[in-house]
Write a structure and sequence with these properties.
111 residues, Endonuclease, Chain A, 3 helices, 23% strand
Length: 111
């Protein structure tokens, strides 16, 4: 019973956190979202800030199982690289393909 309550609270907190991420996207995430939303990219349907198991994907196309991640400077740390590696392994085991884009490829100030 206690485990079920913990899991329910965890899922609720995670859902609230993903909602917060959708409302507070980085400038780079906004740029990409503007380009891929409403099937603008090869008619693929993307969702943003999506829960996949214990992780949250920046963008997801379920039809083709594509995860797009926008990597800022935080991803340069050793700790975060290890986290990203484990996350990629998990997602690949779930048959997702991962595309990582660095912030430098989406210069917010040019938009």
């Amino acid at each position: 019973m206690l485990k079920a309550i913990r899991e329910k609270l965890y899922k609720k907190h995670k859902s609230e956190f993903t909602r917060h991420l959708r409302r507070n996207m980085t400038p780079e995430e906004k740029i990409l979202w503007n380009e891929i939303r409403n099937r603008r990219c090869h008619n693929m349907k993307f969702r943003r800030q999506v829960n996949i198991g214990p992780y949250i994907a920046d963008f997801l196309c379920m039809q083709y199982r594509i995860v797009v991640e926008i990597d800022g400077p935080i991803h340069d740390s050793r700790e975060h690289k290890e986290y990203d590696r484990n996350r990629d392994i998990y997602l690949q085991e779930q048959q997702y393909r991962i595309l990582r884009i660095t912030n430098q490829l989406l210069p917010a100030e040019d938009w």
